[in-house]
Specification:
This protein has 205 residues and is mainly α. It contains eight helices and four strands. The strands form two sheets. A two-stranded antiparallel ribbon has the order 1-2. A two-stranded antiparallel sheet has the order 3-4. A hairpin with a 5-residue loop joins strand 1 and strand 2. Helix 6 crosses helix 7 and helix 7 crosses helix 8. The two termini are 29 Å apart.
Length: 205
């Protein structure tokens, strides 16, 4: 379901909400989309009913029902999470798509809280670590092109890169950036890059 949404360039949070609430996508309310967005992002941090209920302002019962329904519909996500945990317990580490390891010394701890914290870290490290690897590959690919466009790479913030570039070169520079980043690695879904520009950081959206 999620892969299909990405392949067809749909609003993933709206698609999630439509399936959980049994609605057409155009019928999804902003509140329902926000619920779906919170769980789509929160799932990689191991967000449970308590945190979910506090974050979106619903009761514990509603939060529990929503998460259960989510995993029922997107069972592939739950299978993936459980597979990551199983491998982490067996290996003592997780490995990103590009081979970087995150060791988890307490993954088999008898302390339940410590063990569950390591399990959440396993899933998060694998997803966020792969994201970081991809962005670093983008930076390496872009760097040799900067001088040509009289540009500087100023900041990297999570999955964003901020550049300073001559106004006259913005159009060609934007085309180069988009091409490099969207084709840096081939996954089962396309990588999509959005680019904005302005006179200062505050103008970027």
């Amino acid at each position: 379901n999620l892969i299909d949404a990405f392949l067809h360039d749909k609003d993933v949070h709206r698609v999630t909400a439509s399936k959980v609430f049994h609605l057409n996508e155009e019928e999804v309310s902003p509140f329902q989309r926000n619920l779906a967005k919170s769980i789509n992002f929160g799932i990689i941090y191991g967000m449970g009913p308590f945190r979910f209920s506090k974050e979106v302002g619903v009761s514990m019962r509603e939060a529990k029902e929503f998460i259960e329904k989510y995993f029922e519909i997107f069972h592939g996500v739950k299978d993936y999470i459980e597979e990551v945990k199983t491998k982490a317990r067996s290996n003592g580490y997780v490995k990103t798509l590009f081979g970087h390891k995150r060791y988890l010394p307490y993954i088999q701890s008898k302390n339940k809280n410590l063990r569950q914290s390591e399990e959440r870290m396993a899933v998060n490290s694998l997803i966020q670590g792969t994201n970081a690897d991809i962005l670093k590959k983008c930076m390496i690919a872009i760097f040799p092109e900067l001088e040509k466009f009289e540009a500087k790479m100023l900041l990297q913030i999570h999955d964003e890169l901020i550049f300073e570039v001559k106004t006259k070169n913005i159009e060609d520079f934007t085309e180069m950036i988009k091409n490099k980043m969207e084709n840096i690695v081939k996954l089962s879904i396309p990588l999509k890059v959005s680019i904005s520009h302005g006179e200062n950081w505050g103008e970027l959206k």
